[in-house]
Amino acid sequence: MDGCDRSSLSFVSWASNITKCSNPAFEKVISRVWSNPELQKDVLAVLTGVTKSIHDKGGTESAAEYYATLVSIHYSTSNLMKLTALNTPSCTKPAEAYLLKLIMCQAYVHLCYIYIRFSVPDSLLRATFAEAAKILVHLLTSCSATDATHTSLLKPLLICLGRLLRAQVRESWSLESVRHIYRYILRFIDYEKPTVRKSSHIAVCNILHIASSGGTDENVFHPACHQTVQHICVSIRQEMRYV
């Protein structure tokens, strides 16, 4: 075994021991050293605190427990400070968003990101839609374009918001509250930064992909199709004004 392998194993052992996390959804967090060590440090800090909170309550580290804990800590700055032991809550936001993305979406690349496998059940996402959507939208709108963590925060938030909307039943899309949340994703489909723009596209594709909602009729379109087309047409007309 060469030095690189030993170093990698040492990091995995150290990270596993520190976080006490055994949920496979977070394997990416503790299995290797990231190119962005500062973000990984924050992610490990939040993961350690969240895992400890679950253990203290006698939890089993299920996807639902991680999801509920990650969502709930956004409501309380004091809880966030206690969990992470960091001085400024804002510096942990990318870490929280990244962990929320991992536990909501155990995503893997398949047919150009069209299909994503999820670990949190749709029923739980539907039951917590209002609460979770409020948190995610708040984080999206509070991002500053001059913030160095802007991109790293937007990408997982858009994926999470898309996952949340994807879980909603067809009937829910008749509600203005649901369509309003969807508009936040559409705002980023022509975003200046390619990685953020791509995350928005992935979210939209995964929402519209389940058009028939379990049915067999291939001609059944998702209720959000019209809203999506309308938004794109408006964007095109606006761009044509400058041509």
Automatic annotation (TrEMBL):
It comes from the Eukaryota. Residues 119-211 form the RRP12 N-terminal HEAT domain. Pfam families: HEAT_RRP12_N. PANTHER family: ARM REPEAT SUPERFAMILY PROTEIN. This is RRP12 N-terminal HEAT domain-containing protein. It comes from Paragonimus heterotremus.
